[in-house]
Amino acid sequence: MKLFKCSNCGQLVYFENTHCEHCQSLLGFNADDLQMTSILRAEDTFWMSKGNSGIRYRYCANHEYGVCNWLVPAESESPFCKACALNRTIPNLSKPEYIQHWRVIEFAKHRLIYSLLRMKLPLISKAEDAEKGLCFDFVADGHSVSNERILTGHSNGLITLNIAEADDIIREQTRKLMDEMYRTVLGHFRHEIGHYYWERLINNSADLDAFRQLFGDERADYGAALRIHYSKGPSEEWRAHYISSYASVHPWEDWAESWAHYMHIVDTLETAYSFGFSVDPRGIQTAAPLRTEIKADPYRVKDFDHIMQLWLPLTFTMNSISRSMGLQDLYPFIINQRVQEKLTFIHNIINKNGHSSYMMVGSQDLLML
Questions:
Q1: Which is nearest to 1 in space by CA: 10, 303, 12, 9?
Q2: Same domain, 63 and 98
Q3: Domain of 135?
Q4: Residue 38 is inside which H or E element, if any?
Q5: Could you tell me which residue ranges the Zinc-ribbon domain spans (predicted)?
Q6: C-beta separation of 170 from 164 below 8 A
Q7: Considering the domain boundaries, does residue 16 fall inside one?
């Protein structure tokens, strides 16, 4: 993600900030220009941008719960911003711990939507298009009469997230139980949105045959593939072909895992680019070039090979710093040649489809579970 600054005083601020620590101005994120805007209260109770006094805004309705700092044009019929308008079900707000979980979830989801807006991918709610749209359910175990366990996943544009994933302890326990190297709320969103865009961009498209050549035939029995994976485990050779062991389950999961890693790479490189990051190891000579200067916005780079030339030095640096803090590697993955071919395919698909205008819905009824 890029750097943001207060438009009143120029102080650097985080994406989630609601006010500037330096000048105390109120802040809101404007999804139309992807900028953080300092705002003033107007006499008619709407909010007005300091940078452009001719445009009036108000906060998203979810701002009152401390889960959103995005702005909505004053004339909008929707009380929700472009990210929150995608919610179909939110946690039960009568439970304080659920509000905290929701805050963690929304912070991650807003970062996801920021990236999709930067990619300029088609983004539309199910309230606008029931067949091709996107929506989110954030629910807890036992919310229904059947007391069923909620599984995080995607189905026909509906992304469901068990809010227990926002609990650091529970998520870490699950990560160890599932023998995963990495598990975050943002990672979940990036994986599940990959499933959504497979349906939107690959299924029944001219690129389906090329997808099958790289990822395999998705017509293979998905349920049987899952049963084999969880009963026998992954093949010992999975590292030669996949970014993760779970990617080896089925072509759909290979695509979603690869898509998530593509988003990890581009978003992290954008951050490094915004900071003017460079790597110049002192007194070290290796076969792999580790000297680089990140001068390009990755969202604008057409050649994925160039992105990879930046990624290796950056991840080696990040992991070295993480180990210096006594922590696990920040990026504990190896991108082999086969995985790089898959990431290149995804990069080209996004560039091919990333110029569609996005549409969002107006107000909608929310379920609280």
A1: 12
A2: no
A3: 83-189
A4: strand 35-41
A5: 3-94
A6: yes
A7: yes
